[in-house]
Amino acid sequence: MSQRTSGADSAVTPAEGGQPVWNEERVALWLANADARDRQLQPVSDALFDRASLQPGERVLDVGVGSGPTTSQAWEAIRPDGSVTGIDIAPPMITAARQRVTAPEIEWIVGDAASYDFPPKTYDAVISRFGVMFFADPVAGFRNLCEATRPGGRLIVSVWSNLYSTGLFGIPYTVATTTLHRLGAEYEGFPPDGILFSIGVAGDDPRRAQCGWVGRRRDDS
User: Fold this and answer.
1) How many CB atoms sit inside 10 A of residue 2's CB?
2) Residue ranges per domain, the chain?
3) How does pLDDT run across 57-88, given as a tens digit for each residue?
4) pTM as predicted
């Protein structure tokens, strides 16, 4: 059975091999910029909710909630008689989301949405803002979400396109790599842990690459 407690954490073990690994340090860095990021991504949220067309009384599952902005927006759309469940693989993210979004009616789950034992045929809508891109097994993950959705329900998600089709990342990445190449600096491409859109100069602390660090010029003099 699903571990479900309204307004409380429901903890399960994430699927082995899930990416990325959200440890305390990475979550802290993410949350430090959460407000600025949410303002930047508000047009994405607007498009997501326009397509979702959530209605009062609906049951909604939010996948990969982060600090909870889309979960909160979903709750505002379906209240007072609906329900929202937010799930994230990182326990510190759920902790932060619960602190930021205080509606007691929201259910928070710590778990991997790709394998979590959701009650079948429950949700009218499954939404996600950049939360479904890291399933270790996408087919199994989306099958699991489908089984949790009622007949006639809907899935509405936003995902990044490829690096060079996404100007927010492609332009800085191209400028950075071109500059490093011109300076003769050695650099690595995508970090090995699967965090996209980052590069690191050889020899730098790898944690910097994982957090979006591009690198710095080194003077031998």
Assistant:
1) 16
2) 24-158, 163-210
3) 999 999 999 999 999 999 999 999 999 999 99
4) 0.71
